[in-house]
Amino acid sequence: MRGQGMDRRRFLGSSGQAAAGVMVMASSGATLMIAADGAWAMALKTLDGHQGQVLLGAVRTMYPHAALSDRYYAQVVEALDQDAGADAATAELLKSGVADLDQAIPVPWLDLSEGHREQALRSIEATPFFQALRGKTVTTLYNNERVWQAFGYEGPSFDDGGYLDRGFDDLAWLPEPPEEASPTMEL
Amino acid sequence: MASYDLNDDSVVIVIGSGAGGGTLAGELCQKGMPVVLLEAGKHQSIADFDNDEWNAFVQLSWLDKRTTSGSWRVATDFPNLPAWICKTVGGSTVHWAGASLRFQEHELKTRTVYGEVAGANLLDWPLTLAELEPYYARAEDKLGVTRTNDIPGLPGNNNFKVMYNGAIRVGYKNVHTGRMAINSRPRDERAACMQLGFCFQGCKSGAKWSTLYTEIPKAEATGKLDLRPESTALQIEHDDAGKVTGVLYADVAGQQHVQKGRAVCVAGNSIETPRLLLNSASSKFPDGLANSSGQVGRNYMRHTTGSVYGIFDQPVRMYRGTTMAGIITDESGNDPSRGFVGGYELETLSLGIPFMAAFLEPGAWGRDFCSAMESYANMAGMWIVGEDMPQEQNGITLHPEEKDSFGLPIPNVHFDDHANDVAMRNHAYKQGRAVYEAVGAQRVFETPPYPSTHNLGTCRQSANPRDGVCNKFGQTHDVANLFISDGSQFTTGAAENPTLTIVTLAIRQADHIAEQMSKGEI
Questions:
Q1: DSSP H helix total and E strand total for chain A
Q2: ipTM, interface predicted TM-score of the complex
Q3: pLDDT tens per residue across span A72-124
Q4: Quick one: B118 exposed, middle or buried, by C-beta within 10 A (0-12, 13-18, 19+)?
Q5: Which residues pair with A27 in a beta bridge?
Q6: What residues in A contact B153, CB-CB < 8 Å?
Q7: pLDDT band at B202 (very low <50, low <70, confident <90, very high)
Q8: Which of residues 318-377 of B touch A (CB under 8 A)?
Q9: How many CA atoms lie less than 13 Å away from B257 in the CB half-sphere?
Q10: What are the structural domain ranges in chain A?
């Protein structure tokens, strides 16, 4: 497992600069966010680079998993950008929410320490923006097969014949229940 | 498959194709009666089922907008999703876990046994366990319930092993892999369980009973069933004499038709069934059809539920195998010394990562929540199913402003826990925690109730027409040829998962309808 997630979220000092691990480039009609190590890239069509970076940091602070690289959090931001492109009200909600986060504490979001970021998020927890952000993160971040693998969830089993012959009852750190409680399957 | 004319008023119209409607339609067809089965959802198949929680949720669930009110936490966390039930041919038998338990004798006479409970609208059922027993036997045979009819129990999975060992260590005696409508060996043209682990998403091996691939195709084979999927019932019509004459429904294209019929049987689950009766109000029935008692939509019950998840220092992998893989029944009796009337079952339950993230602690975020999610492979889970108190103000009403795409008021679902419900859930949380701590749980979560899967009681049976909507056959007190055919007719909810009893009542109702028709009474 990779444990670098926290380190890569150290941000440079002055406003307008990208996060240490993320480069922002303007392209024709879109903004590109590219991981400094080239591990991932995404195009924002409706949100701008600053908004993308704030949202990336926000979803990571909300659901901090050291084992997950920014790639998975970037997918949440990409989904938010798509929602913003499909619905003007959502775009406005996200943009004004980013502005609120930047003003929640008298230091711009990108410059905030991890603890202050959490504090800033707590201060807006009841807002529709926060709820939208949290809901989208839950349904996107945890709906990813690679995330399942990282947390030991194997997912669908039908194509492999189910778990019948693949460990559905392989737990060995407790005694076996008796036959009348848990009969052996007749095969 | 049959195709009946819209003006053929000899047909029986059944609305909804789940445990109640699908079974009833099947039983009537087996008796040679013509049936039009209206189902709002699509006709999907086992091949369409998707072992992916969110995809399957969108594919199978009833997602039409509903609103919520009351102090229940679902109204906060899932304000437009009070219930997690299905809109598809087969209804919620596509989604159910398969637990098939008979009611206990005292649960059919709660007003007598529990006495007066302040704030509760308790009432004895108008029937007894002895009256139900022969029909329970037919239902268990139909569903192929394990541990009945010489059908072996299912093998326990890892989640069950944790429950079993913890339960025995805290002194429970009645712990086993349950009475399940899941084949432990091939039976009735259905395969044996492959331990897929996606019971809630539609069983891809067909081992779990669902009307979708049992009662409905068998009914089609009789040549008597006219199944009309994607057909939404809008109103039930009646004549001047107060008999129902047909159903106004919208087809897949949105075209509206009236199907004439000799009798109408409503099985739309406990939110849509009362909504349809309320939306069928007329000058003759100004408060809604069959509502002279004022009880249509009231006494909504959802079982006292909640989940307990334990995190251990070794792997469990609870998601492997059947979702509801075992049961503790020791707490299911009525023992008021515990501080509440009624009882509850503890049944294993598992969610995949996507749903665990949404349901473990709705609204939670931050490092603590993430640490629990990272322990997913070491988690075991159980679900509480307990009897909740019927309360008159809990129920389904028509929204005063919001309308659906057909211009009809959407339903609002109101629910407040009764003090008895709270005391029972508190007891069950403590017992569930003790079970897991007895086998070394390092951390235990008390997870709040999910959107309701057991929706009951909104058109209840009663001996006296003043106290409820229908008699002991589900026949409405006010309209002789109108029937309630789903869990809406439950007078009280008992501690048991409701499907077996819904099926039992549907088989019994089919016999009653046939008898009444042969006598010319309806």
A1: 6, 3
A2: 0.94
A3: 999 999 999 999 999 999 999 999 999 999 999 999 999 999 999 999 999 99
A4: exposed
A5: A30
A6: 181-183
A7: very high
A8: 319-321, 326, 352-354, 356-358, 363, 365-367, 369-370, 373-374, 376-377
A9: 17
A10: 47-151
